[in-house]
Here is the input.
Amino acid sequence: MKRMNNLALALLTMALCLPLQAAKVYKWQDADGAWHFSEKPPVEHSAETIKIPTPGKGKEVSATTADQIPESNVSEKTPDLKTKKSEEVAAEDAALARENCIKARENLENLQRGSRLRVKDPDTDQVRYLSTEEQNEWMEKSRTMIQDNCQ
Here is the structure.
């Protein structure tokens, strides 16, 4: 019964979050001819913007390509746009690194306390204690994450 309640709650949460999904997708073709789709525009390629309608808005799908922008505006705005996107991506990466740093430090602190730690085994869905070897492996992984993300 508890699983059914959890399942119903998860489905309800997902249904309520659907309108919050990003409604903009970028599409571009690389040098090898492969098509790519992403929520973030590529810095090195021009991309087509595809606006995906969200439920309830009733708007049509529209696309803007580099061909539709006047040439005078392309040369003026392209470098600034690339720089702005690069700064945004760098800021997002820095924020993610800070979060990973904090989590890795918390994990290492918990592992170094010396108490027995319980984890849920993904294969059997049973809760079990970490062995000493597993705790040592996890501590090493945490140290590596700290070294990579805490600069």
Summary: Residues 71-112 form the longest helix (42 residues). The two ends are 47 Å apart (CA to CA).
